[in-house]
Design a protein that fits this description.
The longest helix has 13 residues. The chain is mostly helical and 80 residues long. The model has no long low-confidence stretch (mean pLDDT 82). Helix content is 44%, strand content 0%. It has a domain of 44 residues. The protein is built from three helices and no strands. α2 packs across α3.
């Protein structure tokens, strides 16, 4: 009996659903990290990653969170 591969395949990552994205954007635009039970003062990518983990039990890489923040228009790109 051969079992299929378990877990995510190489290169795959967990993705937030649309309603989860909306909830996270609302939280980080309406409140500061200090107002929520977070050990951060500012919303950094690491702070947002921890918020996502706390709320939805998903572990995302900081790089993936930065991509979400950029997609949501909440992070500025440095000039090249």
């Amino acid at each position: 009996m051969q079992l299929g591969r378990r877990g995510r395949r190489f290169g795959e990552q967990a993705m937030l659903k649309g309603w989860q994205c909306d909830a996270i954007v609302k939280l980080i635009t309406d409140r500061t990290a200090e107002q929520l039970p977070m050990p951060f003062v500012l919303w950094t990518a690491a702070a947002v990653r921890d918020l996502i983990s706390q709320r939805y039990g998903m572990t995302l890489a900081v790089r993936a969170v930065r991509k979400y923040l950029q997609k949501w228009g909440l992070i500025r790109m440095a000039p090249v």
